[in-house]
Each structure stands twice: as C-alpha cells, then as structure tokens.
Write a structure and sequence with these properties.
The chain is mostly beta strands. It has one domain. The chain contains no helices and 13 strands. The strands form two sheets. Strands 1, 3, 4, 5, 7, 10, 12 and 13 form an eight-stranded mixed β-sheet that branches. It comes from Actinoplanes sandaracinus.
Length: 216
C-alpha cells in the first residue's frame, strides 16, 4: 500500500477571538494586560525531568524557536506496538516532561496552538491513539488533544489544536510546564505488527507549541 499523509484538524472556533480567561489564582500573581504584543527578549527552556515508557531520561529534547514564538519537542525513541511479536507492555507508551520556562521580566506566555506529527503503520482492523495534555504547574487550567486513527494506514500523521482558552503562566519569571503524551495501539482482529511513533529519526516528527505573549 502506498504511503499517504493525513492531516486531522480540530479547531475551536472561538479560540483566539474570544476574551482571555486567565486563571492566575489572585491579583498578587499578576495578569497579562494585552495579547499579541511584540515578542520581548528570548525565552529559555530546560527539561527538568522526563519519565515514562516512551522517553527514558535523556531521550527527549526541547528547543525554542529562533523567533521565540514557541518551542519544539523531539523524542528519540517513542513508539507503541501491538500484534505480531510485540509485547503486551508495548501497546501503550507515555512520556511525561517537566519543562522549566524562563520568561523575560514583565511578560507572560500561554500555549495558543499545538501541532503534533508522527508516523504510523496500522494494519486492517487495528487502531491507534495519540493523546497529549499540558498545564502550568500550580494552575487549575490546561488543554489536551485526543485523536484516534484506524487501519489500514501507513505513513505520516499530524493533528493541530487551537486552545479554546488561553491559560497564561503566572507572572513569576520562571514556570514549569508539564507535558504528558501517550501513544496507544490496539491490534484488534488484525494480524502482524501495528505501530504508532514519534521518533526523531523518522524525519519531520515532533510536537510544536506556539506561544501567545502578554504583558504582566
């Protein structure tokens, strides 16, 4: 079967046009006064911890975009498999990242959009699932993406999400962003091995998070 690329888009209509809802927990933490302002000095990021069956320590990297509009997460060995010779524990793989975001003084950021890309080989009767949720540590608000795939399918997949509500980081200069990602494969009544992956060795495979900037 020839390989094909599928783009699955889920956009909440009111995402960026709606008035901002910012659960910052009280005036003492500060709040953004405006959105879409000119990008300030550079953001720096550091992976504090990576845990899970899909990202052993040192196998996930986070890199800020050159124009500071967001950052990319790349995984070295993140793959779920089912059927054939795959072990039962390989059907579900997950990665939990804690990323320290250093934000320039007087500014704050929210995750406005997320773009997920990977590859899959699903036999007839098999299904796959990609799920990601992310939130600022200490915040009550977060966002998630949940997308299912059905075989037969072989090739690249991508999903794109716009946050229905912009959850800004408290204005504290540093904040931890938690990113939890899961890949799951169910072989169903198929024969042979099916897989879903987000491995950097497979080319343009990554997660891209785009910032929305605001003044504190």
């Amino acid at each position: 079967m020839p390989k094909r690329t599928v783009t699955l888009t889920r956009v909440v209509a009111a995402a960026l046009a709606a008035a901002l809802t910012i659960p910052l927990g009280g005036p003492a933490q500060g709040a953004p006064r405006a959105n879409g302002a000119t990008t300030p000095a550079a953001v720096t990021l550091e992976v504090l911890a990576s845990n899970g069956s899909g990202c052993a320590p040192g196998t996930a990297t986070v890199t800020a975009d050159a124009d500071d509009t967001g950052f990319r997460v790349r995984y070295r060995d993140f793959v779920a498999e089912a059927g054939g010779g795959a072990e039962p524990v390989d059907r579900r793989k997950n990665c939990q990242l804690s990323v320290l975001v250093n934000i320039p003084a007087g500014w704050t950021v929210a995750i406005a959009e997320a773009d997920y890309r990977g590859r899959a080989h699903l036999r007839h009767g098999a299904t796959g699932l990609h799920r990601t949720n992310y939130y600022w540590q200490g915040s009550s608000g977060g966002d998630s993406s949940n997308q299912s795939f059905s075989g037969p399918f072989s090739g690249a997949w991508s999903t794109w999400d716009v946050a229905p509500v912009l959850h800004y980081a408290p204005c504290s200069g540093q904040r931890v962003l938690n990113i939890n990602t899961e890949l799951r494969v169910d072989s169903g009544d198929s024969t042979g091995t099916s897989s879903m992956s987000m491995r950097s060795s497979e080319g343009d495979v990554h997660t891209l998070f785009n910032f929305s900037w605001g003044h504190c």
